[in-house]
Every structure is written in C-alpha cells, then in structure tokens.
Amino acid sequence: MNGVLTVHVDGIGWRSPGLADWDAARSLLRDGGAPALIGASGASPALLPPNERRRAPDTVLLACDVAGQACAMAASGPAQLPCVFASMHGDLAITEHLCMTLAANPLELSPTKFHNSVLNAAAGYWTVATQCHAASNALSASGASFAAGLFEAAAEAHANGTSTLFAAYDAGARGALAETMRAEASHGVAFVLSPERGARTVAALRLRHDGDGDGAEVPEARGSWFGVALLPLFGALAHGHSARLRLPAGRGTALAIEVLA
Amino acid sequence: MPSRIPPLAITAYTATSALGRGRRAHVEALRDRRTGLRDNDFTAAPLACAIGRVDGLEAQPLPAEFAEHDSRNNRLAWLGLGADGFLDAARAAIDRHGASRVALLVGTSTASIGSTEQAHCTLEDGRFAPAFASPSLHTPHSLGLFLEHVLGTRGPCSTIATACSSSAKIFAQGERLIRLGIVDAAILAGVDTLCGSVLFGFNALELVSPEACRPFDVARRGISIGEAAGFALLERGGAGAPRLLGYGESSDAHHMSTPHPHGLGARLALADAFARAGIGAHDVDYVNLHGTATVKNDEVEAALLVDTFPPTTRASSTKGWTGHTLGAAGILEAVITLLAIEHGFVPGTLNTDTPDPPCDARLALANEERAVRVALSNSFGFGGNNCTLAFGRAA
User: Fold this and answer.
1) pLDDT at B395
2) Which residues have C-beta within 8 Å of that of residue B254, sequence separation ≥ 6?
3) Angstroms from B366 CA to nearest CA on chain A
4) For chain B, is the Cβ count within 10 Å smaller at the N or the C terminus?
C-alpha cells in the first residue's frame, strides 16, 4: 500500500449560476472560460418529489441536482450507491434564520427549519428521494471541503469495493454570518467514483494525501472551496487531458490529484 | 454484505460529560446510579426541561495561543482532551507513527454554533462584533480546525456531521483509512455542546421531555439534551487494548426527523456490523441502545432488540445519566460501552420504572455485574442516518 487511491470517474454533475449541467460547463471550459459563481444556482431537481422540492432549502436542491446528474451520466442506480456530501458552510441562510429567531423569540423556532439545518440535510433528502439505504455521509473541512469529501468518497469506494457518489455544494447567502464567512459562491459538483474502470469511465483520478510537504498550504477559512486551484481538475476533465494539481487539505497538508485521461 | 475486517485496537479513550471528567467519573456515576441531568439553567428564555450540562466551561477560556477558536464547544473539547492522559497518548502516537500518518477525524452536529448564536445577539450595525469575527467560530469544521492546531496532525482531517450518528461514523472512517494504508492511527473526537438551536429546535419538534428523560418507559415524553466530549485512539496492534470489531452504516430513506417505522435502516446497519465483525446476535453480551426516550425511537429500537437478539443479550440506554449528547452521543456511548467491557458490568436504564411492553426482559433496568466480551453501540440521526459499532474485549 503506497497511500494512493485511484478512482474512476463514471459520471459528472455540475451546476453554477448560468451553467445548468456538465455539458454547459464543459463547453465553457473548453473555450477557456471561467465559471461565474455569484448568483442563484437555479437548481430544481426533478428527482425530488414536488412536495420535497418546495420544502427543501437551496443547498439541498443544489446538492441533489448535481448528484442526480452524475448518476444519470454514469447510468448508476442511486438506490445502490453509498454517498458522501461535502459542504464548507452548510446552509448559512437557515443558520442565520435560526440565530435571528433565537435572538428575538426562541419559542417561535420553525421545526422544519431546524431539521433542515443539519449538515446531512442533503444526504437525508437524497436518500429519501432515491430510496437509498446505503451508507450516507455528510462532511465539512472548511476551504478543503471538496478535497476532504473527494478523498473520503474514494476511501469508501475502495474500502467497500463499490461505486460511491460524491457531491460538493455550497449556496451563497446574505446577512451578517454570510458576510463574515464571505460566502457568496453558489456551486455544486458531483462524481460517481468507481474503484475499477468501467464502460462509462471518462477519466481516472489518482489521489494522495500529502502531509510531508513544506507545510505552506492552508485551506481558505472564508469564501468557497471552488477556487483557482481546482480549475485544472475540471479543465482536464473537459478537455480529456491529463493534469496534476494540489489542493490544500488541512493545516500544512495537501491533496495531490493526478487526472489520467 | 461487507467482508470481515481485521479488528483494530482502541489504545486510549476518554469522555467528559455531565457525569464528570474522565473514565473514573463515568464509571462511578454509572455504578452509583447518579444522574448528570439537572433542571434547565442554560437558556436565557425559560424552557422547562432537564439538561446534561458540564460545569465550569464559562470560566475556562482556551489558552491564549488558541484564542481564535474560543467557543463553548472547543472549551469542552479542550477539557476532555486532557482527561485520562489522552492528549499525551495522542502526542505519543503522533511521535510513533509520524504526524502525516495520523488522521484527525471529528464528529459534531452543531460545532461552535453557540458562538454564531451569540454573535447574532450582539450585532453592531447589522454586522458581527469584533469578538465574533473569527471564521473558525462559524464553520461546521470549527472543532477540526481547533484540534488540528492543538495536535499538529498532518494526516487527513475532516468533520463528519450526520446529526446524532456523527461521532459513531468517525470510527468507520478511521478503520477505512487504516485498512487502506493511508494512515497508521486515527485520533477520533466527538464534541457537541448545549446551545439555543438544539434546545429550542428539538422543542419546536415537540421532542423535548419536560422532565428528565425516561428511555423505554411507558410514560416517556422525549429527550433530555446534554453535552459531551469523547476521544478515542484507533490503531493496529495494541496488546491488552479493547477492539473495534466492526461497524455498519445505513440510511432509512424514510423521513428527515422520524425513524423508519420498522427500523429498516437500523437493521441494515446492525447486519453490516455483524458481517464486518464476523459475529452473530448470539455473541453479543451487551447493547448500548440509542434509546433517546422519544416515543418513536424507543418503539422501533425495542422491536429490533426483541426480533434480533437472544434473551441472553442485555441492553440499556444510558441517556438517563448523560442526556442525549447529539453529535457526541456516538463516541460518548462508545466509551461507556468500552467501560462496560473493561469493568465487567452492564449499566441499567435510569429513570425507567415500567418498560413499554415491547421491551422485554432483554432491557436491563438495574445495573448488572456481568462479563461483557462483545458489545454494540447504536446511534441513529436525523435524515435517517444510522451507525452501529461493535466492540470486543482485549485480544
């Protein structure tokens, strides 16, 4: 064992303001464009029943939208797929609402807002909608949330010998909390990752946690997990190229990613 | 079905809760049947309920070098980390394996949201006051950032937040990383603290009992919320140390805040834990139940107990002692389960006089002196997120 996890990308989901899916993002990236991150994501995943679509917060809609896209592209039945959802901020709009209600009149707290406030709300809505009884995970790691979620999904895929769904998402918000966290970006991406190459595989990712570097890399404490460091990954997937990149993973640690076309 | 996994050693473990700081405080309170619950004296707005509060956190700020992380949750983490020599054991493991070979895996439900709540009570011109400007107070990864700063680990570090199963699932995450050769040890930490969000949130869902919780009692009226910090060190080898034998994780796929009526997800998690541990129900001496004392949870879990286990298996909920410590419940109750194995006793179920009929004789009401070789701990969370852990006596 050399500490390298190689996973195969069988499906990709994407949503950002103005880019409704991976096809749209791929065209933009192939033309050398950079995706906009500020604005409404516009996610309204058909996979959620109408009632749930109305009740679910934006973060959940975004996460379920990209997760559904990745499963469709991979032709993977979501009911069988263990899933890992990663978010840097959780749902800031709900957290803000809970905190303002607590400051004014705590007995008027909304029960629905409360149960939607858990970080695993997306995993909860997703597993209910897809009738998925497999393991579901919800994880956060500050500005390294994408890197940590991807690594966890790859570890689950290998440890259990099964394809695993990974989605990372955050929705921009307004208010004192969002301002403090500079949480403006709305963006979701998802992969179906398999331990073995399959008929639907479009690329492989070789992942290595590097804790022995010079220690200079530190994830952003504010803002978004989607940044300049991550673009080469999606650029390589869009072009069908190989690429190497490093994402800050923790205090002085990095996730080294090699994209193999 | 998953394959059987090699057991891992739990070479250090500790917990701090309303029962006190460290393992001895927990064993004594359990043996003496002394609850940690008290009338709610935490919320500014009155809320008639019992809480499991850890004393003294208000007067114990973090050391100055960690000031950016200073929150109730991280204070409790700091208090708990120093108990039972855990901090020394963690540092020794980092020296032994190398910092990049040790993962830091944390579980919490609400992290430092108490600080975010305070920040909203003291807004200045609609913005956070300077005292609340640190982003590490307002991220779900607050606990992970603090402990990574304290410990200097350089292996993978993340926060699992799956509500009340959070700090059970970090055992599974640690096992995977060790088995795959990514790291040689994992420091596991689960911490959740009292805050307005959970007290008034569960109250809004009509799940908070006005009296101390009574798990599995016919007259149970809901949960009592508590706070706790638990830590465990997972690695290979470890002669004489108790074992993580297996785990199972599943999703109910039923509802955000209500368990599956037939406990489908809980049964799947249990079956996977059995498969990974290579054991069956007849091997299990003790089950530390989720046992929240909500009407639904206990009904579903009691049916699972009766359907699955032989009458020789003993089971109890210890939430009458500690309250439901939410994101910390997984690891707190893992520690209690390990104490049951180490000390050879089954803690009973506090505050319960008349068990609901489906809870048959398998439910231990009184404490029992009894060898515990193999024991399970159940944790079920919102979103239908389930995790069952299997532990065994030292190899």
Assistant:
1) 77
2) A128, B260, B261, B264, B265, B384
3) 34
4) N
